[in-house]
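Title: Prediction job returns without error message
Component: structure pipeline
Severity: low
Priority: P3
Assignee: unassigned

Description:
Job completed but the reporter wants confirmation the result is attached to the right record. Sequence as submitted:
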Amino acid sequence: MISTLAALLLSVAPPAERRVAVVVGSNTAVAGRAQLQYAHRDAQAMAGVLTRAGHFQPGDVRVLLDPSPEAVLLALDEARAEARGAHTMLLFYFSGHADDHSLYPGGAALPLSALKQRLSDEAVGVRVGVIDSCRGGGWTQAKGLSVTQPFEVGLTALSSEGMALLASSSGLEDAHEAEALQGSFFTHHLVAGLSGAADQTGDGQVTLSEAFAYANRLTIRDSARRAPTPQHPSFDLRLRGRQDVVLTAVSHSPTLLTLAQKEGPLQVVQLSSGVVVVEAPAGEQVLRVTLPPGAYVVRRVSDEGVLSREVQVKEGAPSVVEEASLTLVGDARLASKGGPLVGRHQVALQGGVSPESFATNWTLQAAYAWRFSERFEWRAARALVSFPTATPLSEQLIRDFGVLPTTFQANRAMFGTDFVWVAVDSAWGRGGGLALSLSLGPTLVLRSNEVFLQPASSPPPSSAGAGVTPVAAGTASVSMSMHLPSVPSLSFDAAVAGHLLFRASGVLPQIHFGVGASWHFL
């Protein structure tokens, strides 16, 4: 069925002057379903945004955690008595298990008919009902009901000037909660929307349809990423002759954060929990959001890098963060999964060996690369110098055995450029990790004439002497990098490179082994 249902009943045009709420969170398991993890957090988050921006006085918001059905009905009866009048609002919120007949606060059944009876009280001007039902399991805790025919909470028959229905999923879908959000997808994004993120007009007020549109988009996105079946919220607004309903007004909140966004999308991360509490839609706008007091990071994440700034939200002291004031702190992997690299530029130095048929050459290589996306970089300049070891050996053999030197060609220098694909990049610890990359590109090889050995009875060839021959080549390499948590901008590299030299006499394959270090900077 419908796992989260909010029914808003409207009766008069003037705004509510008195607002009262009963907010219930129940983690308690029921038969055949696991205990929930975040229903309490959902309820507390909803109560928080109501008092900060919804014109609910703290004493008018009753928060009940794992109560009995009797306690829920008693709280509703008391709230109805307090909210009588034309310009009033009664809001009921529930997060926990449910089925098509009952809610299960404290694990016991509360018939939906009893809820309908109390929300049908026309002595209260505006009545709002939100039901967020759930069950647990796996990476995401599947929230919802047994797979049956869709049901409605039963408020459609109430007499009023209008009605609106919010649902966090369609009838046969589950809703979801996730560890990364520390709450349910729909409630998390609905609270963020009511906090100001859903304000599309910039007037500092969030209407019912604005809040739903914001929560709808992000709920579908998150559930599609993490759940077997995407979650599709639904919305039905029936307000005869009335405009949309303002649920929150963040401009008068005592804990206000203003985001001056030029491009975006900006995110606000709560440092105490690590949760992204607000995601602003992309595009130029000035967005005002209300948040609990504390430390936050405002950031923008893209392929080019992560720009961020820390901000303190204090009661009575509005804060403003302009996107232009954010500073670049690293590449996108640092924010998305804790990747070790810092910066988009890289300078590398490697020492290595290059075995040939006559001897093993020592090599020294330097390179500069530019990281232009999460998985790709361009190694714009690569230079390698070889130091052949045959000459000292020939001198020793001539002295001891009387053999004569002859010439051969050996690599003395290589210059090239290539494109690098980071195939694997796994993070561990704080700033540490391993990366595996593949590269391919053209190379110019300079080969010089070097001495070799032949028997003393043979005359030395006439071509002996100095000279450098340029040879075109192609280079492919596989490299592995390790980044230590203590110095995340420094990596230690090991690489194996293969070269194909295209000579007039044919193609000559060669191999090179190297180890070294790279420095990553902005």
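Comment from assignee: result matches the submitted record. The mean pLDDT is 75.
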